[in-house]
Specification:
This protein is α/β, with parallel strands linked by helices. The chain has a single domain (2-145), classed as 3-Layer(aba) Sandwich (Rossmann fold), CATH 3.40.50.9100. The protein is 39% helix and 18% strand. The chain has five helices and five strands; from the N terminus they run βααβαβαββα. It has helices at residues 19-22, 27-41, 53-63, 82-91, 129-145; strands at residues 2-7, 44-49, 69-73, 95-99, 121-124. Strands 2-1-3-4-5 form a five-stranded parallel beta sheet, sandwiched between helices. The longest helix is centred in the last third of the chain and has 17 residues, at 129-145.
């Protein structure tokens, strides 16, 4: 089983961003924790981060054929990334949308997600643990489908 873990704009500078909102862990630290969790769960994870929507779309189009599910933190693309939304839908894979902060407790415009309608679920406001929860949930769901 292979899960794609995708991160959008500005997530490459986690640890330098506002720690009260995004936490203190870097993206590499989060990826390392997820890599260890995936080993315990006997699944493969493939990580990708880009500040460019087109690069994320290209990655999904290339890698989705060999994957079973997607965990994505689209960053600001959450609110306007329509080509990303379409690429996620086109994969036909289950998608879990994650956000470090509670997007519904911040500015009003952040509460609108164009990704949510094509996602199986969304986890928001749990910090880095949102990724861990998404991985655990997605694997359990995929195993139930088998």
């Amino acid at each position: 089983m292979k899960i794609l873990i995708v991160n959008g704009p500005n997530l490459n500078i986690l640890g330098k961003r506002d720690n009260k909102i995004y936490g203190q862990k870097t993206l590499e630290e989060i990826n390392s924790l997820l890599r260890r969790q995936a080993e315990v769960l006997h699944v493969e994870v493939l990580f990708f981060q880009s500040n460019s929507e087109g690069d994320i779309v290209d990655f999904l189009q290339e890698k989705a054929l060999s994957a079973n599910g997607i965990i994505i933190n689209p960053g600001a693309l959450t609110h306007y990334g329509l080509s990303l939304r379409d690429a996620l839908a086109d994969t036909g894979l289950p998608v879990i949308e994650v956000h470090l902060s509670n997007i519904y407790a911040r500015e009003n415009w952040r509460a609108n997600s164009v990704i949510a309608p094509v996602a199986s679920g969304q986890i928001s406001g749990l910090g880095w643990r949102a990724y861990a929860a998404a991985l655990q949930y997605l694997i359990a769901e995929l195993k139930e489908e088998e």
